[in-house]
Amino acid sequence: MKRSRWTAGTLALAALAGAGAFAFHKVMVSLNAARALAESPENKTTAGVDKDQNGIRDEVDALIAKEYQATPAQTKAAQNLARILQITAQSGEMTRPEALVLANKASDAIGCFMSATSEEKMSSQTMKLIDFTFNTAERQKNDRRYSTLLSGQAFTIKDCK
Q1: How many CB atoms lie within 10 A of CB 42?
Q2: Which ranges in the chain belong to alpha helices (H)?
Q3: What is the pTM of this model?
Q4: Per-residue confidence (pLDDT) for residue 154, from 0 to 100
Q5: How far apart are alpha carbons 56 and 121 in whole angstroms?
């Protein structure tokens, strides 16, 4: 049996978005799908495979193409958030100042994603993107390290520009 590791930020995001038992079940289903992808030979590094070199791993690109096509704004917002999450997934040696710069960019990306996503789907869609990005032990370790570097910081999520 595999155990999942959740960062405090991930749990807070689910709580803030009002995730109930059904939403939690949907998140766990997406986490299992993400883990299955992680076991592919192409996912042996934190960088994974990004054939078009757009800063988003191919399996996350496929998820965005399938799940985040409600509007062009939603697609763009999901891609921007995915790029930030991918940097975090590869952030093994990041310093605190670098983490703070990235967190400000992440706040902007989250604000745009929130603006482009319907309220009722916000939690499940955000969690699915997170699950597909942090789908290996090493990526999750980097996410926890990044969260530790940001410990005690407050960020404002701004409206999309």
Answers
A1: 13
A2: 8-16, 21-38, 58-67, 72-89, 96-116, 119-133, 137-149
A3: 0.70
A4: 80
A5: 22
